[in-house]
Every structure is written in C-alpha cells, then in structure tokens.
Amino acid sequence: MAFLLIFVTLLHLVTLAMLFIATMEKSWWVWDGTKNSDLWYNCMYDNSSETWLCSSSKETEWLQSVQALMVLAVVFSSISFLIFLGQLFTMSKGGLFYITGLCQIFAGLTAFSAALIYTLHHMDILGSSPDSSSGHFGYCFILAWVCVPLLLCSGVMYVHLRKRE
Asked: Where is the signal peptide (predicted)?
C-alpha cells in the first residue's frame, strides 16, 4: 500500500511539473531553431546579441481559450494535490479519494481540450504568414499531450485508492 501511495504521489507531482512546463515554456511551435512561438510570446533568436527577443503573441480567440484551459489544468491539478494531502491526513480509514480523483480527471480533460484546440487551430493562432506552415510542433505541445493520459490515469487511480493505516 505504501508503494502505491508513493507511486501515485510521484506521478501526480511529475504530471504537475510537466503541465507547468508545457504551459510556461517557449516552444509550442518551432520554425528553424531560431524562431518559436508559445502560448504567450513569439520569440526570435538574435545572433548579434546572442539573446532571445520576444514579443507578445497576437491575441486570438483560439489562443485565449488554449491559454485559459492550460492555466485551468495547472490550477485543478494543484488543487487536486492539496486536497489529496488534506484527505491523506484527515480522512477516516477506508475512505476513497473521490474529490482528488475528480479534480485530477478534470485537469486532464482541460489539458486535452487545450491541446486539441491548438492542434486543430494552430494556423489561426500563429497567423496567416507564409512561414506558418514551414514549422512543426515543439516539445511543450508534445508535453501537453503526454500529460493528458497521465492526468487521467492518476485521476482514475485516486478514485480507486483507499486510505489504509
């Protein structure tokens, strides 16, 4: 039982970290290694100063929905972890972690919605410039997709997990 509890806790912390990185890092769309775009900024690498120059992304309705859903996924996963800690120390023996599991499942569904919207509407989000189609999805986009099944699996595991002594 202790092994399962440690595994679920580590899985939750890993998915929370991955979700946070996917939301905040700068590579949802990558062009040629010197230009990338994320949920918040469009960045270009300046060779003369050897720094990244970033400007705010053009606010479209699709981008705002992806931003909101990713932030909600981070918030729900964080709340889920806090509820889990509270339930772990206050719940009676034999109780189930329903609230924790439902919050984690909801975080997985919001991350799924955000990644799906970005997948289907990335051209609208990036704009209609000719170089929009020459890039590819970055590691943060892939990380967001990897988080979806992990969040859903950990949510299901929380729903079936019972507190024991």
From this structure: 1-16
Sheet holding 51-56, edge to edge: 51-56, 41-46, 35-37, 29-30, 136-137
Residue 79 lies in a domain: yes
In this prediction, residue 1 carries a pLDDT of 63
Q: How far is CA 90 from the centre of its chain?
A: 29
Number of domains in the chain: 1
Range of the domain at 91: 2-27+60-160
Which residue from 1, 41, 5 is spatially nearest to 140, judged by alpha carbons?
41
Q: What is the rounded average pLDDT of the residues 34-39?
A: 82
The pLDDT value recorded for residue 105 is: 94
- Answer whether residue 7 is part of any domain: yes
Q: How far apart (Å, rounded) are the C-alpha atoms in residues 111 and 133?
A: 24
Cα–Cα distance for residue pair 138/118, rounded to 1 Å: 12
Kindly report the pTM of this predicted structure. 0.86
Question: In this structure, how many other beta carbons lie within 10 angstroms of the beta carbon of residue 45?
Answer: 14
Average the pLDDT over each of 11-25, 105-119, 129-143 and give the range with the smallest value: 129-143
